[in-house]
Amino acid sequence: MKVQTISDEIFFPHTNAYTLFEMYTNADKHSEITESKAMISDIPGDSFSAYDGYCFGKNLVIDTNKRIVQTWRTTDWPQEAKDSILTLRFIEKEAGTTVSLKQEDVPVTMAESILQGWKDYYWCLWVEHLCVNYAWCLD
């Protein structure tokens, strides 16, 4: 099966790494922002699921407020495909934080939709959440 690596970056002005890290690893916050059930933690070795079980995997490395590495797949992932490896990096600077995504071993047939899914179902929702709760918005 052909696989590829996808990547993306988004800058969140006026936002620290702690806030973004918590939005992803805190199950209550993750569920609230995505309006779906998430079971996730910041503990290495823990399993996780998000979007009512649609995506799931296991925490491999947790470097608090800096990096998350997980195995990752979806319920419609090809059965013969191995799990992808997701790495999220949180790079804090004075003006805000950049989130860098790298996801390896994504089946080529799903790569475009998975990348678009990160934009639609995470980054856009995070921006919306931050605008409402912290009174800033991206143009």
Descriptive overview:
The model has no long low-confidence stretch (mean pLDDT 94). The chain contains three helices and six strands, in the order βααβββββα. The chain has one domain (3-134): Alpha-D-Glucose-1,6-Bisphosphate, Chain A, domain 4 (2-Layer Sandwich). 32% of the residues lie in helices and 39% in strands.
Widest beta sheet: strand line-up: 1-6-5-4-3-2
* CA-CA gap between termini: 39 Å
Secondary-structure element series: EHHEEEEEH
Approximate shape: globular
Number of domains: 1
Spans where pLDDT lies below 50 across 5 or more residues: none
The level of helicity is 25-40%
Number of strands: 6
Secondary-structure content class: alpha+beta
Average pLDDT over all residues = 94
CATH architecture: 2-Layer Sandwich
Q: What Rg, in angstroms, do the CA atoms define?
A: 14 Å
Strand content: 35-45%
Q: CATH homologous superfamily name?
A: START domain
Write the layout of secondary structure elements.
Elements: E1 3-13, H1 17-25, H2 27-34, E2 47-50, E3 55-63, E4 67-74, E5 84-93, E6 96-107, H3 108-134
Antiparallel strand pairs: 1-6, 2-3, 3-4, 4-5, 5-6
Helix pairs in contact: 1-2
